[in-house]
TrEMBL record, chains A, B:
It comes from the Bacteria. SUPFAM superfamilies: Winged helix' DNA-binding domain. Keywords: DNA-binding, Transcription, Transcription regulation. This is Helix-turn-helix domain-containing protein.
Amino acid sequence: MTEQEIKFKEKIKAIQDTMYVIGGKWKIVIILSIYNGNKRFNDIVASIPKITNRVLSKELKHLEENLLISRKVIDEYPVRIEYTLTEYCLSIDELAGPMEKWGKNHMKKISGK
Amino acid sequence: MTEQEIKFKEKIKAIQDTMYVIGGKWKIVIILSIYNGNKRFNDIVASIPKITNRVLSKELKHLEENLLISRKVIDEYPVRIEYTLTEYCLSIDELAGPMEKWGKNHMKKISGK
């Protein structure tokens, strides 16, 4: 493989890794919801149109495994669980900002066809 | 709904629109392959590890519908079909660059656990 091909494959791998971690319809939106102050499961569900409990549970687990959120069990009666963003998660803004801008622009582009 | 909630819902919508258009494992990678000079179906397939013909066909159609690539039929014998990026598609670099950087960093973060 040429130097250029190796670089290209590395670029593909890095972008696919990013898509694996934050891709799909819900992950960044869940992060934004927690960033917006929604710490508890039901608050997060209520803040995101059309998300289901099953999907949110699965995505929260995925985000936790990828060190983007942390889950705290508060030993009260009843037990409370709170989700917060990790320090590391704030790096997502490098992506969320451009994505928001691009999405808004794309809708104008497509509707202006 | 408060002003803040409206803004939040708009942000969610814009990011979900972006994910719909360029999300998933293959779309940006296909764009990069065409950007790298692969114009014909078989060249694109060969350049992207593990992609299948069926998936590439579906994703090319999606990218064309979203004005990111154009498809030219060259009336020779046999007929040739070439894919090129639209001018508009270059705006993707606002996303591909940060995604590449974030992905590389994330792999170090996860492996350095």
